[in-house]
Design a protein that fits this description.
2 copies of one chain form a homodimer. By secondary structure, chain A is of the alpha/beta class. Chain A has 3 domains: 44 residues, no CATH class; 130 residues, 3-Layer(aba) Sandwich (Rossmann fold); 130 residues, Response regulator (Rossmann fold), CATH 3.40.50.2300. In chain A, 42% of the residues lie in helices and 16% in strands. In chain A, the strands form 2 sheets. Chain A has a 6-stranded parallel β-sheet, with helices on both faces. The first copy, chain A, has a 6-stranded mixed β-sheet with strand order 7-6-8-9-10-12, with helices on both faces. In chain A, α1 crosses α3. The model of chain A has no long low-confidence stretch (mean pLDDT 93). At the A-B interface, α4, α5, β2, α6 and α7 of A face α4, α5, β2, α6 and α7 of B. Chain A binds a DNA duplex through α2 and α4.
DNA sequence: TTATTTCTTGCATACGAATGCAAATACTTC
DNA sequence: GAAGTATTTGCATTCGTATGCAAGAAATAA
């Protein structure tokens, strides 16, 4: 197996210049004459030379690798975000190293340690939290950490989320305006700031209208648990006439239970409102009214924060909240019946 | 910003040994005495030392990074596969560097070049092809390439797919047994071997029963195009009574058109069979009969090939086809009406 | 105890590219 | 053409770790 390694030295030899010259040709902004540049490029492409990013990283201290920790790829909001993120970073010359955080155990710290081993330029935690201890490690290692779709009470961490509190309020306002009287909520995982904020906003708005939650169950952002929650909620004596579900993903499960297991009509008997606006929400089979998380804008913000941090170490952490609209579709009544 | 870099040298100093000793402690299988080992480990954890993978790679020639090229994260088969892949590799001490191949332009070669820059130990192309020229580059760089869910006529590339031909046959056999008389097909992108094999198997089986395709449209594995295809196919004079769609993803779009735009009943008036068995297929709203691609077994095979190639350069490329069952649900009639 | 073998250890070097510095070359200007 | 400035270039070193080699320590055999 002719495992050839073409190094800058060989290119230099062929081009009749020094290794430094070759390096400079491939270093944007370095001082090289037109002639040398051409000679080197010709030799390089002849040999199929490409700079070794790893070797370069060793010196520059920049790996052009961004570590991404994800745990919920089965929630279709994340594949979309991943795709946007990866594409955008790719355009900027960075690439994404993926780390799965198992949903069960809270071993995020171990995972982040592994990430640091790769000398990543930055870490994105998608819907995942980290220990304060580890945040210290990252900070002192000079690796900026950005929480995506999650916040945390640690002022060293930047975060980008949708405005979950406002989103919760929007959902409530909409259901109230629709004349619903028995309004319920199916919660996500209580450890998630997104869940807490959505609930808080929702409950707050209800309260401001003198309404209190008619029913409450926890789905933990897991479809099966959402199903259970729905079964429990909608087999009671007098069932809710509206339910706000903390994620689209759970909403689909809830709708399926309501329609196919319990034979109820949506939205005639029960209105359902979700959160995320993943692609499936717009499919006619669900046609889900939901609060949109503008993935593209969230990603854009994330990336701008990352690049800023990488270029200028002194940037202080920011917390971005992006407002998302309520997307009105057919899963919830609009006027009072 | 106290950007401290803890190196093996500092650990060595603290532990009162040489840098080599530290290195050996962190190199599995190296010769170190129990005493030294302890001293070093104590010092290391005190300083929070962790070996720099990049520097290590420079010497060993192994980065423990696997490059993954994806292009269809919106088809929910891929997030699932990505999750399985990443998890399994993580357990083996490898990690996945993600590269998005834009669906539109065929710039795969550029992408793979970028991957090679990172000195990856192997490349997985998920549902993506590469030029023969580039395959040469990879081979000569000693980087094994594995096609996932795609084959290609290049005997230097390994591939792992489901048995698409057999899957197509199963779909046909099932529809025939269900007494369908006007059987149609909505194809994926013709450049994909998966598409071609599924179609070939399907048509072959029909032919063996003396049946020919009643209608044919192309959906290119894109939901919108599948919708168009369905509209065209099901507004004809005498519509098909069954359609095999080349992917679940397209199937959902097709079912939505059939039900909600055209007001037809599934499976009473039209039977639909898909391919993939993504999670959504089992949701009651679709309840799609489909040929399963066993993602977990496909991933397991992929990984075993990768590890084998990395350890033993002389392994020759393999082509694995994994048989998947037809999962019978409610979207297709079983008995002749 | 001494000779022999097996483990450990440190030294020095290598991996591939980037960069400060000083020497060399090219370009201006008078 | 000389003097001065701006631009290129090569040399040597550096990044953090792994590893062949030879010397030293420990264990075993005689």
């Amino acid at each position: 197996m002719a495992t050839k390694k073409i190094t800058s030295l060989e290119v230099a030899k062929l081009a009749g210049v020094s290794q430094s010259a070759v390096s400079r040709v491939f270093t944007p902004g370095a001082s090289v004459s037109k002639k040398t540049n051409e000679k080197v490029r010709r030799a390089a492409s002849k040999l199929g030379y490409r700079p070794n990013i790893l070797a370069r990283s060793l010196i520059t201290g920049k790996s052009r690798i961004i570590g991404l920790v994800v745990s919920h790829l089965d929630n279709y909001f994340y594949p979309e975000a991943l795709e946007l993120l990866s594409n955008a970073l790719q355009k900027k010359g960075y690439h994404v190293l993926v780390f799965m955080a198992s949903k069960t155990s809270g071993n995020i710290d171990d995972v982040v340690d592994e990430i640091l081993d790769y000398q990543v330029d930055s870490i994105i935690l998608a819907s995942v939290a980290m220990s304060s201890n580890l945040a210290t490690r990252c900070t002192s290692a000079g690796v900026p950490v950005i929480l995506f779709n999650r916040t945390q009470d640690d002022n060293r961490l930047s975060s980008v989320t949708s405005d979950n509190f406002a989103g919760g309020k929007k959902a409530a306002r909409f259901l109230i305006a629709g004349g619903h009287k028995r309004i319920a909520y199916i919660a996500g995982w209580e450890g998630a700031s997104t869940q807490r904020d959505r609930e808080a906003g929702f409950v707050k708005e209800l309260k401001e209208h003198g309404i209190s939650l008619y029913a409450y169950e926890v789905g933990n952002f897991v479809r099966d648990e959402a199903r259970q929650a729905a079964r429990k909620m909608f087999t009671a004596d007098e069932i809710p006439d509206a339910v706000f579900v903390a994620s689209d993903d759970m909403s689909f499960a809830v709708m399926d239970v309501i329609r196919f297991e319990l034979g109820l009509k949506i939205p005639e008997q029960v209105s359902v409102v979700g959160y995320d606006d993943v692609p499936v929400a717009s499919w006619p089979a669900y046609d889900l009214t939901t609060v949109r998380q503008p993935a593209n804008r969230m990603v854009a913000e994330t990336i701008s924060i990352i690049l800023e941090c990488i270029e200028d170490k002194e940037t202080k952490p920011r917390r971005i909240q992006i407002d998302g609209p309520l997307v009105i579709r057919g899963s919830a009544r609009i006027s009072n019946k």
